[in-house]
Design goal:
It contains 19 helices and 23 strands. It is an alpha+beta fold. The longest helix is centred in the N-terminal third of the chain and has 35 residues. It is elongated.
Length: 569
């Protein structure tokens, strides 16, 4: 009897223990759900009763000017039709592929592969359709084929200033600016998204009487460029013609204002259409060679050497030296172009005749360390800070090794490299009383609220004295008048210099391939513009004075007329 009672009590206590354990488990679970994960379940409950929509901002647009008082669109936003497939709704796959292929420019095999994927509810086929193509697709009335509106970037002037603009492309399903201004000003252009949230009923419909909140989207900032539409077009046509005429592998050119640093035109060739950037043969086409590629400038670097010599009072324009046509430095031999010998020559004649040994003579008078400081002061070892994506800095590694031969070759533009923009800015400092300016592409930004932010010209540094700049300008005017018949312009003073540079290879300098450059400014004593042109590996022409001088002269005459600059003489 006692044993039975004891056994019953044991079962009672065991069941009581199990019951308490279950109650404790439920309590812990409730605590976890109601306290620890309250936020999660509250959010899920809110989702069941609320709908939230992202409000997309308008991307800022980009405008090009015409003489500063008219503006024309370069990059805008536009609605296009996008065609997509719902594979499970397609009745005749072969007929759909055959009908759509010629309209959308997609191979039938690719379309067949898309419509064969019956488990995929959405297969995009082609975006940015023009209205005519969209109408033709719609008229086919094909089951499973749909058209929707999408907002895309549109460049109404096609390839005009393509390398300056860049384009808006897809990256990880997001649309982002790539290259040029579109990438550099991505944050300003894209704006900020907003949100609209409101209660909904069991069917997911908006409850108009329910509570709602809205975080307003902020549209992107509009950019108004320093580029002039007419100058940009004229330069682009000229460079295209030059590159094709001389079968150059590439080319670039720019026009800027020496007194402000404002860039009025910039061209890189070959170019592309930002509306159809996908068809480019290589991403290398998108590289803006004016700011993203280095080159050894050759003889257009010689005015920089003269600037250092004049400013340090080591020479004057009338200083003479005796050219023997050859110079030996540390076991290396330096010669003039075409092995010419000029005899007694002034420093002005050194520029006029582009005498290699003459600029080495000046560099040796200056001394390596001081020479290097002047080169650095002109900005060659730095990025210019221009507001374009992907700019690279110049390379002065050779002269920083403090070797005599490296200083000597740098004097005629060999062994040092910079971007064409960097070279143009350095020469513009000579045109601008010795003041080196910061370059800029955007004249003003206009925010969504109408607020304007103008770019003010900024002096980078004073490189040489105004007196030095004036002397050197006179020397460069003499260089044009006594050296380049094809760019003499009646009643105007033009300053300029050519450069024909051998191209460095792993085996040394090429004997057959060169880069041609021409840089100059006008009117020389009160410059309104500076032009730099560069051709990469032109064929069938030996010197830049022959390949580029005529084009430079024509562009200079065009700009003098365009700006209505009165004659100086």
């Amino acid at each position: 009897m006692r044993a039975a009672l004891k056994s019953g009590q044991s079962r009672y206590f065991f069941l009581l223990f199990i019951f308490c354990l279950l109650i404790s488990g439920v309590a812990v679970r409730l605590f976890f759900l109601q306290v620890m994960q309250h936020g999660v379940y509250a959010a899920n409950a809110q989702k069941q009763h609320q709908v939230q929509t992202e409000l997309f901002p308008r991307r800022g647009e980009i405008f090009i000017q015409e003489k500063g008082d008219q503006w024309h669109p370069l990059a805008v936003n536009r609605n296009f039709k996008t065609v997509f497939l719902v594979p499970k709704e397609v009745v005749d796959q072969a007929m759909v592929a055959e009908s759509l292929a010629p309209l959308v420019g997609v191979d039938q095999e690719i379309i067949l592969k898309k419509v064969s994927n019956a488990n995929d509810p959405y297969e995009p086929l082609k975006s940015k359709l023009d209205d005519e193509t969209a109408a033709k697709i719609e008229s086919l009335k094909l089951a499973g084929i749909y058209l929707i509106d999408e907002n895309w970037r549109w460049y109404p002037q096609g390839n005009l200033a393509a390398h300056v603009l860049g384009f808006v492309g897809r990256r990880d399903e997001a649309r982002l600016g790539q290259y040029g201004l579109e990438q550099y000003y991505e944050m300003e252009l894209q704006g900020q998204s907003g949100f609209l949230s409101s209660e909904k009923d069991a069917l997911g419909r908006w409850l108009l009487l329910g509570d709602y909140s809205r975080e307003q989207e902020q549209d992107g900032t509009d950019l108004y460029l320093t580029l002039d539409q007419n100058i940009q077009y004229a330069l682009q046509q000229k460079i295209k013609g030059l590159a094709e005429k001389w079968q150059a592998s590439g080319a670039c050119a720019l026009v800027l204002e020496p007194k402000t640093g404002a860039i009025r035109a910039m061209v890189s060739w070959p170019d592309f259409d930002p509306n159809n950037y996908q068809v480019a043969s290589s991403t290398n086409v998108f590289i803006n060679s004016c700011v993203q590629q280095l080159y050894e400038p050759g003889s257009i670097f010689k005015p920089i050497v003269m600037a250092a010599g004049l400013d340090s009072a080591k020479i004057s324009p009338q200083t003479t030296f005796v050219d023997k046509g050859i110079l030996s430095i540390g076991g290396y031999t330096i010669q003039n172009s075409q092995q010419k010998v000029y005899g007694v020559s002034t420093m002005t004649q050194v520029l006029e005749k582009s005498i290699n040994t003459g600029v080495v003579f000046v560099e040796q008078l200056i001394g390596g360390e001081l020479f290097k400081k002047y080169i650095e002061a002109f900005g060659f070892g730095e990025m210019t800070g221009v507001d374009l994506a992907g700019e690279v800095s110049g390379n002065l590694k050779n002269i920083r090794e403090n070797r005599e031969i490296n200083y000597a070759t740098a004097a005629f533009g060999q062994g040092v490299s910079m971007t064409p923009l960097g070279m143009a800015l350095a020469i513009s400092a000579i045109a601008n009383d010795g003041k080196l300016m910061k370059p800029f592409m955007v004249e003003k930004m206009v925010m969504a609220n109408g607020e304007e932010k103008k770019t003010e010209p900024q002096v980078w540094r004073q490189v040489i004295t105004p007196a030095t700049a004036a002397k050197l300008t006179a020397m460069l005017v003499s260089t044009v008048r006594n050296g380049y018949d094809k760019i003499k312009i009646a009643n105007y003073f033009v300053a300029g210099k050519t450069g024909t540079a051998q191209i460095a290879t792993q085996q040394g300098y090429s004997e057959t391939e060169t880069n041609h450059s021409f840089v100059g400014y006008a009117p020389a004593y009160n410059p309104k513009f500076l032009i730099l042109i560069k051709l990469e590996k032109p064929q069938g022409i030996e010197f830049a004075s022959e390949s580029l001088a005529p084009a430079f002269g024509e562009l200079t005459q065009y700009l003098l007329n365009y700006y209505e600059i009165p004659p100086e003489e």
